[in-house]
Structure formats: C-alpha cells, structure tokens
Design goal:
Layout lengths: L8 H6 L5 H14 L39 H35 L10 E5 L2 E5 L5 E7 L1 E2 L6 E5 L5 E5 L4 E3 L6 E5 L2 E8 L2 E7 L5 E7 L1 E5 L2 E6 L2 E5 L5 E6 L8 E5 L9 E6 L2 E6 L5 E6 L3 E3 L4 E5 L5 E7 L2 E6 L2 E6 L6 E6 L4 E5 L15 E3 L4 E7 L4 E8 L2 E6 L4 E7 L2 E5 L5 E5 L12 E2 L7 E6 L2 E6 L4 E7 L1 E4 L2 H5 L10 E5 L2 E5 L13 E4 L6 E5 L2 E6 L4 E4 L8 E2 L4 E3 L2 E3 L5 E4 L9
Antiparallel strand pairs: 1-2, 2-3, 4-5, 5-6, 6-7, 8-9, 9-10, 10-11, 12-13, 13-14, 14-15, 16-17, 17-18, 18-19, 20-21, 21-22, 22-23, 24-25, 25-26, 27-28, 28-29, 29-30, 31-32, 32-33, 34-35, 35-36, 36-37, 38-39, 39-40, 41-42, 42-43, 43-44, 45-46, 46-47, 47-48
Length: 598
C-alpha cells in the first residue's frame, strides 16, 4: 500500500474539536443511551434476572464503547460523540421514513374490500368486475341484480335463481328456491315444501326470518302483505302478523295497502282495502284508527285522509296517536306540512283559510291569512300584530303551541328548513333564525340561501359571496363573485376523509375548487365547473381541455366537451360505454353496447 493511500486515524481524530456546551449535552445524552461502565473483566456483560436461577439462562450481549479498545481519552470522547450523532441521524431518518410511509398508506384507496362488484353485460349475459377491472364473475348469467350486503341474486340457464358472493362463489345453489325477490334488506323467497309452493322471508344474512308457510308474500312501500289459506293481512318488518282479515271461500284473495308518507321518526298510518271495504290502521301495531267503510278512502301525506261520501262531499281526517284529531266535511282541502309543528291547514268552501292546532283543535289565530302563515320543517310561523307592544310579531309554533315570539324583523323570506329560517330585516337584508328562535349571528346579509342538511349555506355580504356553517363560522371567506356548491346527495356519497370538492368559487370569471373545510384542493383555475347530482364527480374545463375530475383521488378522465354525457355510480363512471374507476383508470369497455350496470 502506498503512503498516500494510508490514513493516520489517530492523528486525524485527535485534531477534531467540539464546542464545549454541545459536547456536554451530548455527553449527557450518552450517559442515558450508553452509560459509563464499571470496568468489567471482559468486553461484555451477562445480564441476569435476579429472579431467574436457571444456570442455562441466555447470555445477552450488550455493546459498549469500550469494545473499541481505544486507549486515548480524547479519541475515546470523539468516538463516543460520533456514535451518538450516528444514532441521532438514524432516528431522524427512520422517523421521516415512517411519516412518509404513513402519508402514502393513508392515500391508498381500497377497492375490493369495501366496494360492491360492478355489473357488466356481454352478449346479453351478466357478469361482474371489481374496481380495478379484474373479472370476478364471467358474463354467463341470464339475469342478475346488483350486490346488496355482499351478495347478488342471479339466474343461470335453468332460469332458476341462485345467490353468489363477491368472489362469484354460489352460496345459495340453483334449485334451493323457486323465486327470490329483494324486499328492503330482506329477500322474499318461495320454495317447494310438503304442502306445495310456499313463501317465506330471508334476512340480510340469508337466514330464514319467516318460515315457508305462506301462499304469497308481497312487498311495497316498506310493507309486507300476505295470503295464507283464507286469511290476508300485513306483516311488520320483524315478520310478525299485525293485521289480518278472514275471507270466505268465494272472496278474491287480494289485499291492497296504501301508506301515508311521514318522517321516519313518526308513526305512519295506512289504508287497507280488502273485499270492498277500507280501514285505516297503525302501520306499526296494526291497531284500527278508523272503522271500516265501503266508501273509498284516499291517502295524503302526514297521516291526512279523506273519505268520499255518497253525496260527493269529502270527509277529512287527521290521525295521531291512534285517534282522529280532526274530522271535518267543511273543508275542500286539508293538509299537514309538519307533524312536529302540529298545525293543519284547512281551506273552506269560500276559500278562506283555517290553521288548526293539533294540541287544542282550535285555530292558532282567527282570520289568519295565507300570506301571514309560514309552514316549515318542525316549526310553523305566523305573523300578527301585538297591540300591547305596538309591534308586528312573529310567533313560532311547535306541537301546536306557541313557544316563542320574535320582534324587530320585517318578514320571513323562507320558512324553516334544515334547522333554520331566513328572516328579513328592516334594512332589506337577511339573517338566519334557528328552531329555538335564536339568531345565528348579528350579520345582515345581502343574500342568504338555505342551509343544507350538512349545515352549510351560501350567503353574500358587501365584499362578495361566502359560505357559513350552522355555527355561524366562515367556511369560505366573503370575497367571491360566484359560488357553486355540491348538493346533498353528492355530499352523502362522498368519502368523509378525502379531499372532496364541495365548492367552486370564482373571482374574475375563473373558478377554484375547495373542500368541505374551505381548503383549496389544487392550484388549477377552471373556466367552468359542473357538480354531479349524486356522486363526488365534477365536469370541468381548464386550459382548453375538458375532463371529468375526481378530487378524492386527484384523477381526471378526458372528454370531448362540457356537453359530453356520462353516468356516475358509487364506485365507477361510464362514458360512452367505457367504465372508469374513481382513480380515473379505464377498467372495462362494453363492446356489446348493451344496458349499463347500475
């Protein structure tokens, strides 16, 4: 070896110097990580657990700086410091790697686990692929439904139904059942028994929920009806018979049920028609609320009904808690906008109005005009004049009773919706009033739009348009000339933990897009942005290009122009029979141009 290739380590190391303060700190750290050892008889120690007496216990080697066998004290300190710097560097590098890896892992989209397979059609045969375009079930079935609860109902060449899971495995074999029909999360099934073809119900896990003893089971408007021997009736969602009617041998075995549309929190009532008679019943318990009649009964919303009398008049009923609250033939129309508010609107023969409290069965205010009555969700408002205070008052009604009166506003621009009414002030500007009768804030807006069910509203101040939440906080600052927003279905089908585009806000005719927290999603400027009506997909134009943009994955699919039609589904997008996933990847081409999956 040449002299120039030889490095004198001792000379180089001995000439290194450290700041005393830093050196002291490192020494303190070293004392924790590599404490000074009592001079051992060898270069390693055996760690012994005092409780362990087994002579065959494992020897554990603990490295020490003394293993280097450095004689020079100064070099000893230098090596010690080099070691700690190396350890610190490794730790920081490891932490960076973990953080980076974690970020990348969080950005991954998992398909096969959470999303249902996508139906495809080739030569009028049905099959399924996953979100990445991998074939799960070859197109070979004559009929198929989309997946629900992890399985699909299909038919093979025998034209009998069977059920497959997401892998295509047959979990209910051909011939097990004669028919299979979806009923909400359940399945109405029929099969051959010792008593002939009988119907039953399977639950969402394909277990028998109702035994196969019925001649027929039907499902409509979230209601089961049945025929069993000479009895027809209604089943609740647990499969329990709640109403039955016995027929003679000559009667038609037909039962028709029409249910009044109500909020899910409320009990609904319905009209059951059997053998020419009609009866109103509680759709949860089956209890009769209005005795049978041969007259026709028509069902309206929120448990309002009318019976057509022989003289051509209509007798209106409003039913609550299994009782008829209002029964009148004096109205040409009766309606209930909100059961929670508890106010009915009746129109008399002379086209005057009555607003009836369900609590008192009296008018909330006599001679109240339709222009001074505001029906909203959960709360009814009516305008009167308070002669004691010499002011116009706005009275808030819930459950048929006034619970608060508001003064010092000019009017109601919009009744209550999603928790807020929009009120008008004397300065012709607007504000928000919550369902407890409290103002959201003291801001007077030039324009105010409704809050959606997710608690966001677009409004306008002198400085421009912005977005506020239900707490009155700004989501987007009030500085924009235009704001477009995603609708409630779009938000419902968005990933809560993704950068979903909720708003497109414009300054100087160019749009930027923002997430639900008002954070800008990217640096692009768009000439136009069109939100999909149901799913987190946008159609945009930018820099002369037009494409479908999926903000959640920052992916795009090029299209011809803004007039290009497309269909978005829960986990895929169809453009001209080309199927794309939500990463913008082409996963399937429907060459047969048959009906698309849904």
């Amino acid at each position: 070896m040449d002299d120039k290739d030889f490095i004198d380590v001792s000379d180089d190391v001995e000439t290194l110097s450290f700041d005393d303060e830093i050196s002291d700190e490192i020494d303190a750290m070293l004392s924790q990580i590599m404490p000074e050892e009592k001079k051992p008889s060898s270069n390693y120690e055996i760690l012994k657990d005092e409780k362990v007496t087994n002579k065959n216990s494992l020897d554990v080697y603990v490295p020490s700086i003394k293993d280097f066998n450095i004689k020079s004290e100064r070099t000893h300190k230098i090596v010690k410091k080099v070691m700690i710097y190396s350890i610190i560097f490794i730790l920081f590098t490891f932490e960076f790697f973990i953080n980076k890896a974690g970020t990348e892992l969080n950005n991954l989209r998992i398909y096969a686990t959470n999303n249902n397979p996508i139906m495809i059609v080739q030569n009028n045969k049905y099959g399924f692929i996953d979100d990445k375009g991998n074939t799960l079930v070859n197109p070979k079935y004559s009929y198929a439904t989309n997946y629900v609860n992890g399985y699909a109902i299909i038919k093979d060449a025998t034209n009998l139904p069977l059920i497959i899971d997401k892998t295509g495995k047959e979990i209910v074999k051909t011939g097990t059942y004669f028919t299979l029909y979806r009923a909400g999360s359940d399945i109405i099934a029929s099969k051959s028994t010792s008593d002939g073809l009988k119907y039953g119900i399977l639950d969402s896990n394909l277990n028998v929920k109702l035994k196969f003893t019925y001649d027929l089971i039907s499902y409509q408007d979230d209601t089961y009806t049945f025929v069993k021997d000479n009895v027809v009736g209604i089943l609740n969602n647990d499969g329990k018979e709640i109403y039955s009617y016995k027929l003679s041998d000559t009667d038609d075995k037909v039962i028709n049920v029409t249910v009044s549309s109500v909020d899910k929190k409320r009990t609904s009532y319905g009209v059951v028609k059997v053998n020419g008679s009609s009866v109103i019943i509680n759709m949860t318990t089956g209890k009769v609320a209005k005795t049978p009649t041969l007259n026709n009964i028509t069902v309206l919303d929120n448990n309002v009904f009318y019976e057509e009398k022989e003289n051509g008049k209509k007798e209106y009923y409003y039913i609550e808690n299994d009782n008829i609250i209002v029964d009148s033939i004096s109205y040409v129309n009766l309606s209930m906008n909100s059961i929670e508010a508890g106010v009915l609107k009746g129109i008399n023969n002379d086209f005057t109005y009555e607003f009836i409290s369900t609590a008192t069965k009296e008018q909330v205010s006599k001679k109240l005009s339709n222009e001074d009555a505001y029906f909203g969700e959960n709360v009814f408002i009516y305008k009167t004049y308070d002669y004691k205070k010499n002011k116009v008052s706005f009275n808030l009604v819930r459950n048929g009773k006034v619970f608060k009166t508001i003064y010092d506003i000019k009017g109601i621009k919009q009744p209550f919706k999603n928790g807020f009414a929009i009120v008008e002030y004397d300065d012709n500007k607007y504000g928000y009033l919550n369902e407890e009768g409290n103002f959201l804030n003291d801001v007077h807006y030039i324009e105010a739009k409704s809050f959606d069910s997710y608690g966001d509203a677009v409004a306008k101040m002198d400085t421009g348009y912005g977005v506020i939440n239900k707490n009155g906080n700004e989501v987007l600052k009030f500085k924009y000339s235009k704001i477009k927003e995603a609708n409630e279905n779009y938000k419902k089908n968005s990933y809560s933990d993704k950068n979903t585009a909720y708003y497109a806000a414009s300054i100087d005719n160019y749009y930027s897009i923002y997430d639900k927290k008002g954070k800008k999603i990217n640096s692009n400027n768009y000439l136009d942005v069109i939100f999909n009506d149901s799913y987190p997909v946008l159609k945009v134009s930018s820099n002369g290009n037009t494409y479908i943009y999926i903000a959640e994955s920052d992916s795009k699919i090029n299209i011809d122009d803004l007039n290009t039609n497309y269909k978005a589904y829960k986990n895929y997008i169809v453009i001209n029979n080309n199927y794309y996933n939500y990463d913008g990847k082409l996963i399937y081409v429907n060459k047969s141009r048959s009906t698309e999956g849904s």
